[in-house]
Amino acid sequence: MRQEDFQGRDGGPIPEGRDSLGVRQRQKAARPGQIIEAAFAEFAEKGYAGARLEDVARRIGVTKGTIYHYFPGKEDLFKAMVMAHLLPLIDGLKAIAADEGTSGGTLLRLLLEQAWDNMVGNEKSREFVRLLVGEASRVPVLARFFQQELSERAGELIALVIRRGVATGEFHAEADRHLSRFPDAIVAPAVMACFQAVLMSGAGLPPPDIQAMKEAHLHLLLNGLLVRPA
């Protein structure tokens, strides 16, 4: 060990207990993230009903009480796990859409590319989709949570992008009337591709050509929305 490892910032020795306190603080700060990662592995392997908090705790070498210190129960942990993975994707798209100088067409392309790359092309995201769909009928509260916290946020973002394109004259005037009520229609091909990838993976079949499917989706959607010169 180096001499400086025993020294503080002023060159003197680190007071007894300070270094170990810092380590404990860092461990405590990292604990929720570790629990969420362990929960993902547990839920993915056993499903919502079969997952147990004591098994989540065992994966990272803590007690079940430690899990309850951060999360009141299994439902809360499941929700936190979903939000931790999917919400940053939506917030990242909102940050892009906040630039009022970006055209509606550019925003829509960016939104769809992110949806394809971070949902369809990401194995972990596909597993989240599989979990949510598989558990929704058995645990209705999770379906309501997904609708309120994630689906509605994504829908609001899509509607904002469509209105931007209509306002700038890029998109047909009818686009807002039709798609603001059904924003899911914009991302439906990506969602279907995600389901297809999940099914093929589960059956041990080769994955679909995600890049080609993405380009076909973008071509179809943008050519359908864009206003053509007279």
Brief description of this entry?
By secondary structure, this protein is mainly α.
What do these coordinates show?
With 230 residues, the protein is mainly α. It has 2 domains: 71 residues, Arc Repressor Mutant, subunit A, CATH 1.10.10.60; 157 residues, Tetracycline Repressor, domain 2 (Orthogonal Bundle). Helix content is 74%, strand content 0%. The chain is built from 10 helices and no strands. It is elongated and about 65 Å long. The N terminus is likely disordered.
CATH superfamily of the largest domain: Tetracycline Repressor, domain 2
Number of helices: 10
Q: The biggest beta sheet, please?
A: none
User: Separation of termini?
Assistant: 76 Å
What's the Cα radius of gyration? 23 Å
**What is the averaged pLDDT score?**
81
Strand content: under 5%
Order of helices and strands: HHHHHHHHHH
Q: Give start-end ranges of low-pLDDT stretches.
A: 1-10
* Portion of residues within helices: over 70%
Q: According to CATH, what is the topology of the largest domain?
A: Tetracycline Repressor, domain 2
Structure classification: mainly alpha
**What overall form do the CA principal axes indicate?**
elongated
Named at the architecture level, the CATH assignment of the largest domain is Orthogonal Bundle
Return the CATH class of the largest domain: Mainly Alpha
Number of strands: 0
The tally of domains stands at 2
